[in-house]
Write a structure and sequence with these properties.
Helix 3 crosses helix 4 (182-192). It is extended, with a radius of gyration of 41 Å. The protein is of the alpha+beta class and 440 residues long. The strands form three sheets. The chain has a five-stranded antiparallel β-sheet with strand order 2-1-4-3-5. It contains twelve helices and twelve strands. Among the domains are: 1-122, no CATH class; 132-207, 2-Layer Sandwich (GMP Synthetase, Chain A, domain 3); 230-273, no CATH class; 274-326. It starts with 50 loop residues before the first strand and ends in a 9-residue tail after the last helix.
Length: 440
């Protein structure tokens, strides 16, 4: 997540936070390392570290380069370094004494003769060539996947990284087994006109390169700080009383989540106080089976085969029942404890008058009142046609003779009626209609 005040100036350095890319928020670059030795004064410049850590492709790959000219480089500077038959452009991620700690962590020796060198600060021409070759990467991924599919190879091209000068391309792929890609390399070399390097990665490394948001709502650990991937199995979920659900325990990569190992040591230390071989205990009624262990309340939950209810037992009670079972004695009852929730129930206020806010209950009351009024109006409208039908005969028998001419002035008769020759006959039959304007 990047800081909101971080804006890039004309020289390529962050201008908002004024930390020259050292804020380590993870937004400017992936896999950032906080340089906590940055402001430490140097006592001996002769013994200073002459190696700089450089990051490529927004932090997905890092490497160490020697600084033979002892130029002053700051974090975030774009520099040109030695590449395969050419040069490459990277970003300075660490300088100073913190680099020695990183080299020790990765088992890299400072006096390694094969370590490549830093050439210079990246010029405008270097940056232009670098951006042009980087723009070729998305199209190269699509084309390389199509070629691998045509050759019927069981592999997936995850990412293609072009060197800054465009002379070399690294193809990162995922495969379950061993793949014979000798023919594939020839096709790639003729298609992209570059030197091809194939590098196999795992599903977790792919998730770290692609990035994403985990189920916790934060960025993936493998794309922000996690560098070494330890094996994760379902036993870690069982120790933590998690349901063995593949969809919930799997991460973005399709493997078990790495965070299952984070709290595993805490659970293992807490489970040392629980007795072993107590999965089944015997009572007079039947055998009780262990369901789960609660390390926070020091309780063991058991269930009986004839019911779905779970009975919480203390550790001392389970140990006592186990000792009685070893002596051939079955107790009459499990003697479960009563679990009382210490969480306070919050009461919702009936009316809140803060900055014009009201509770939802008052809105519901108003909606119910309005709904009842609409229902009453619908009922009244349904009764009116019935009253008209009851008094319709009287109106036709008596009132039509008196106001025969008034039928033309009714507001509801807006549509013209066709001339019906039998109309006068019907009037005579119903009420002997005779209008004042009609000739007799």
């Amino acid at each position: 997540m990047s800081c909101t005040s971080c804006s890039t100036s004309s020289n390529g350095k962050p201008g908002g936070c004024q930390s020259n890319g050292g804020c380590s928020t993870g937004g400017c670059n992936l896999m950032n390392t906080h340089d906590w030795l940055r402001n430490l004064p140097m006592s001996d410049f002769a013994s200073a570290c002459k190696v700089i850590e450089v990051t490529f492709n927004q932090g997905t790959r890092k490497d160490f380069f020697r600084n033979p000219a002892l130029h002053n480089y700051e974090k975030g500077d774009l520099i040109s370094v030695e590449g395969i038959s050419g040069f490459d452009v990277g970003e300075v991620s660490l300088t100073g004494e913190i680099v020695r700690l990183q080299m020790k962590k990765r088992n890299v020796k400072e006096d390694n003769p094969e370590m490549k060198k830093i050439l210079r600060h990246a010029t405008d021409r270097d940056i232009d060539i670098w951006k042009q070759n980087k723009a070729r990467e998305p199209e190269a991924v699509i084309r390389s996947r199509a070629i691998a599919r045509q050759l019927k190879l069981d592999m997936k091209i995850s990412q293609v990284e072009m060197q800054a000068d465009g002379r070399k391309a690294t193809f990162f792929y995922i495969a379950d087994g061993r793949v014979d890609f000798r023919e594939l390399i020839k096709v790639y070399a003729s298609e992209f006109k570059v030197k091809v390097e194939m590098r196999q990665i795992g599903a977790r490394q792919e998730a770290g390169k692609v990035g994403g948001i985990g189920s916790c709502g934060r960025e993936l650990c493998c794309s922000t700080w996690l560098t070494d991937f330890k094996s994760v199995n379902t036993a870690a979920a069982r120790y933590q009383n998690l349901s063995i659900n593949q969809t919930k325990l799997s991460g973005q990569c399709g493997r078990l989540k790495c965070c299952l190992n984070y709290e595993l040591d805490t659970y293992l230390d807490a489970l040392q106080h629980f007795p072993d071989n107590c999965d089944v205990i015997q009572v007079t009624k039947s055998n009780a089976f262990l369901v789960k262990k609660d390390i926070f309340k020091n309780l063991m939950w058991y269930t009986l085969p004839d019911s779905n209810k779970q009975y919480p037992l203390t550790i001392e009670r389970v140990i006592k029942i186990k000792e009685l079972n070893q002596q051939g004695i079955r107790p009459d009852d499990l003697e479960p404890v009563e679990v009382v929730s210490s969480k306070t129930v919050e009461k919702e206020p009936e009316f809140v008058e803060l900055v014009g806010q009201i509770s939802l209950k008052s809105l519901d009351k108003a909606a119910d009142k309005k709904r009842q009024q609409n229902r009453n109006q619908n009922q009244e409208r349904g009764q009116r046609p019935q009253q008209r039908q009851q008094g319709g005969g009287q109106q036709q028998g008596g009132n039509q003779q008196q106001g025969g001419g008034n039928n033309q002035n009714r507001p509801n008769r807006n549509r013209p009626r066709p001339n019906n020759p039998n109309r006068n006959r019907g009037g005579q039959q119903g009420g002997n209609q005779q209008g004042p304007d009609k000739p007799q």
